[in-house]
Each structure stands twice: as C-alpha cells, then as structure tokens.
C-alpha cells in the first residue's frame, strides 16, 4: 500500500541531501536542528505521548464474544479510558497524555487490569488479526445509547459494515499519539507570536508526516506482527496474496510478511485511492479532506442511504465523515465540543500526530513495549528534524509501493526499495543502516538528557534486526505460530498467560476507587447527553451535514 520515493516536486533529491549528511561532507540542516534542540536537555524529557490499544473480547473456545460491552465498565460513549471501536466486542483502552514512558505503560496496565476484572469468562485477544469468527453476524455493531450523538456513532459503523464488511473492521491495532513540547519549538524558532508559532508547528508536523510516509515502512519491518491469519478471516473474499497453509490447521500465512493488517486485507478503500490528498500544508490537507467528504460515490450510492425507514449509512459520499479516511498517520488537534476534526485543525493548526501503523505486539500483555515507544521517539524526532521537501503525485504513488513491499515480503533479504520515481534502488538493509547512523545521534542526546542508556540500547538491539529479520516481531511470531500449531493456538496460549498477569497486577497510577468512579461518572454523563437532546435523530443528521450543501 505504501512506498519510499525521494524526489520532491522541484526535482531535488532528498537522498542526495541525506548522502551528504551521512558522509559528513557538510554541516547539514539535520545536524544544525539537532544541535539547537539538544542545547536544552529538558526538551527530551517533555515529549507528550498517549496510547490507544484495541483488543477483541473472546470466549474460552477461541471465538469472538457475542455479549454486549459490560455495563460494569461504564458508558463507551463517555468513559475516559475504556470504550469500544467498531464492534461491541472490540474494546479500546485509552491513556491520558504522559511525559514519562513508565507512567504511560503503568496507566495502560491499570486499565487492562480493571477491564479484565469485569469480563467474567471472557479474555482479551492478544493479536492484531481477529480470533475465530464463525459468521459475520456474530460481530455486533457498537452501541452508544439513545442520544443523537450515540446513534450517529452506531450508524457510521453500520455504513462501514455495508461498505467494507464487518470482518475487516475488527482488526486490532495500537495508535500512538505524540507531540513535541513548546520547548522543542522554542529551540528551533525562538520567540514568535501566537499565529507564527501555530503556522511553524503545523508546517513542521506536516514535514514530519511526509518523512513518515517516505520512511515509515521501518515500523512494519521492525514491529509488524501479523504475518498469519485464521482462514475464517478471508471466508468468501478474493485475494491475490499467495498464502501458504500451515499443515493441519486453519492458519494461512505469507513466509516473509510483516503486517497483513496493513495490507489489502486490512482497511482499504478503492474509492479513496484516487483522492490524492496533499500533505504539503495544513491548508492543502484540509482542502483535499473536504473534497473527499463532499465527493459522491457511485459504488456507495448503490447501497442506499435509507431503506424501509431505516438508515444504512450516514451518506453515500466517498467518506461518510472524516474518520473514514484511511491513513497510517494523522495530523490532530483536540476538538472542542461540537467541533469536527477538520474544524479543529483549521482553527488551531496541528497539535499532535497519531501514528496508526503499529500492530498489537503479541509479546507484551498491553500490546506495546517500552522499546517500541523509545524507537518511535527517535524516529519521529528524526522525521521532524530532517529536511522534508514537498510531495508531488508521483511520490505519493511511490511510497505506497514500497510500504506494500515491506508489508508483504519485508523479511525476505534483498527486497529493493526504489529511491526516486525514476528508479535508483537500494536494499532495505542498505537503506536502514544508512539512516540508523542519524538515529543513533538522536539516541545519544536523548540518553544524555535522561541520564540513561535506554535509547542507545534500543538502537543497538534494532541494528541486529536489520540483517536478521527472524528477530523482528513478525519473524518471532511466525516461528511461534508454527511451533504452537496455528494462529488460534498461539493467540489462546498468550491470552491465558496474560489473563494471569492482568489478575496479579497491582494498581500503580490509578486505584479501584478511581476506576469505579469513572464508570459511575461515564454512565451519568451519557444520561445527561440523552436528556439534553432537543431534536429527533433525522433532524440532527440534517443539521450536522448542513455544511455539505
């Protein structure tokens, strides 16, 4: 789906610039920027991080749970930390923003502990690709109560079901929210008025996003963890992927795949492939997004919006709402009450970014490890400090190709990534070794600021993974799946192990009282929202989408 292509619309070669950086022939923009930021060591202790982890509830027999979201966990519409995604059985755990990695992970552990204590005989599926699903009808749409906003959330999911099918929507991932502190921008830009700072931050975050598209295939290479699937996942679906079957099991796999979650089996939308939304500025991004929201779709029109008095989707446009735009990274701003995401971006610019390319880490009870977070700190800092030319349509197409190569065969040695739309090639290993030199420079100054060796330790470990793909998460996982006798057996054994860890965990950030109080508060908030509605649902939708006319 994605690719690396390093020529700007002006024809300047980013690869040429990076070659100079690496050889030390010139004092590069990257080196200057890193030195500016590193002059204030507090910068590296103030990064903002948050995690959203998705996980399916499943029954002891390994099949998806068909029960409702437990009321003992509060209202998924209003709970701060525990909600649902597409389905009643697809839970989502959300941490607050934290500046400290151990605190962030402790929050996530506390949430897992509390949630699991309310699940009775059910468990939390530890893999990105779903557990066994006998029938798509077993996947119940998430419910959010009788309020207009709650009904709209469910109807949006109804539209996704009609457009793409339910199976695709219950793939689990981990979203990593990340922001630089004001001290980071102070180091780079000095004193600025409010508008200047807002514009500078938005431009820099979009520069980060462009470099993420160019180089973000590193994430599925190192941390992709979905090389295999249960055959029930593709029941009745056509695919061109050359799957192999694990003997005597219902497990299908690609021998060198890293992240089938990110492949065409995952969340794809052929209607979106022609949108060509620009990442060159916040204004161009919003222009493309608003165009997509307003663009009619013949394919989705055939579904119908309403039938026999029942809504089937919010509308028949390419995107029902902004959230439907698939992207492995998103620019974000916290929205005010009643504000759409694009309106928040237009009002205040980019506040943080959301990394969406992480599979659930099956070797960690909460789906993400400290090692992964430290790498993301390094990588996202590098993306922000490295020169980032504008992207033209050619480059947009190129990065899709390279991401797809890494996703489907990234552990095959000798996979080539095309640098430049016209075709110089380097192997994945050659390219990663080259940019890792700069990662290590960042790791060194981060460790100096934190009085540790944690970031350099991560770089040292991942250096080995470059040339030994069997050490990557997907490599380790596929070996374990084969050893355990299939994807389902591997997942269930991990689920049993993590169930014990959740039970034995002691609260370290929250408490039982705090968690119980949030449940009660969320239920009260939902009731207040429902009581405050003053128009019927159909009128609510008309008013919500009035801006499309």
Automatic annotation (TrEMBL):
InterPro entries per UniProt: Gln_synth/guanido_kin_cat_dom, Glu_cys_ligase, Glut_cys_ligase
Superkingdom in the source lineage: Bacteria
Reactions the enzyme catalyzes: L-cysteine + L-glutamate + ATP = gamma-L-glutamyl-L-cysteine + ADP + phosphate + H(+)
Associated pathway: Sulfur metabolism; glutathione biosynthesis; glutathione from L-cysteine and L-glutamate: step 1/2
EC number: 6.3.2.2
EC category: ligase
Signal found in the keyword field: no
GO biological process: glutathione biosynthetic process
Keyword Nucleotide-binding: yes
Residue span, Glutamate--cysteine ligase domain: 38-406
Molecular function GO labels: ATP binding; glutamate-cysteine ligase activity; metal ion binding
Keywords annotated in UniProt: ATP-binding, Glutathione biosynthesis, Ligase, Nucleotide-binding
Gene Ontology CC terms, in alphabetical order: cytosol
Family: Belongs to the glutamate--cysteine ligase type 1 family. Type 1 subfamily.
Name by which UniProt lists this protein: Glutamate--cysteine ligase
Organism, scientific name: Vibrio inusitatus NBRC 102082
